[in-house]
Amino acid sequence: MSQIPVVVLASGGLDSTVTAAMAKAAGYALHLLTIDYGQRHQFEIDCAKNIATWLGVHDHKILQLDLRIFGGSALTDQIPVPTDRAAHERGQKIPVTYVPARNTIFLSLALAYAEVLNARKIFFGANILDYSGYPDCRPEFIRAFMEVAKQGTCSGQEGHPIEVEAPLLFMTKREIIQKGQELHVPFHLTSSCYQPGPDNRPCGHCDSCLIRQEGFQGAQIPDPAQMSAD
């Protein structure tokens, strides 16, 4: 299986890194795709580069696509990032950190890359349990996108549809971290924070930081990224 190529959407975050490590453990040849979309947390691009080196990937492409031209999100516009929200608050409605149609855009780019590579799978770190209410992290969305991929690509029409694999979809953050620990994922290389401070230290207050903290606490292991920030 080592010669079978797959595309992995790699943000530099915890979930995408564990997803990539799972794909590697399955024996696939990894082709990472990282999107530099003008996000507030640009530090994650550097994290993705370091993670690609650790994984020993076949290729790592970084594609620039400035979504700040549209704005509409706290990650791409001058909108404050929510902080110190309790778990019940995070699940009430779609937060302002949602980037309009981001995963649709990202998966479309990954689909184009996969078709060029004759890859049959795209690995995607979406998660529905410990997430902030994003509509493009749901199984319904993934199933719908695979139908688009089947109908809208040459490979799909020739009977070789490209599948989207989301192995973390129904895992809790604790379970994701435990899986990463099993695969020796270097958590210290990953970044989850939406608004890193000086020296790219995690703020510890945005939704993503809080979800990460809760996950490491549940797994009963220290977060090396947080430790290096202290």
Précis, in short:
The chain is an alpha/beta fold. Helix content is 40%, strand content 11%. It starts with a strand and ends with a helix.
Structural write-up:
Helix content is 40%, strand content 11%. With 230 residues, the chain is of the alpha/beta class. It has a single domain, classed as Rossmann fold, CATH 3.40.50. A five-stranded parallel beta sheet has the order 3-2-1-4-5, with helices on both faces. Helix 2 links the parallel strand 2 and strand 3 (59-64). The chain starts with a strand and ends with a helix.
Layout: helices, strands, pairs:
Elements: E1 5-9, H1 14-25, E2 29-36, H2 43-55, E3 59-64, H3 87-90, H4 102-117, E4 121-123, H5 139-152, H6 154-157, E5 163-165, H7 173-182, H8 207-219, H9 224-229
Parallel strand pairs: 1-2, 1-4, 2-3, 4-5
Strand content: 5-15%
Shape: globular
- Annotated CATH topology: Rossmann fold
Helicity range: 40-55%
Count of discrete domains = 1
CATH architecture: 3-Layer(aba) Sandwich
Q: Nearest-angstrom radius of gyration?
A: 17 Å
Contiguous uncertain segments of 5+ residues: none
Distance between the termini: 42 Å
Class by SSE composition: alpha/beta
How are the strands of the biggest sheet laid out side by side?
A: 3-2-1-4-5
Number of E strands:
5
CATH superfamily: HUPs
Q: Treating each run of at least 4 consecutive H or I residues as one helix, how many helices? A: 9
What's the level 1 CATH class? Alpha Beta
Largest sheet: 5 strands, parallel
What is the arithmetic mean of pLDDT?
93
Q: What's the SSE pattern?
A: EHEHEHHEHHEHHH
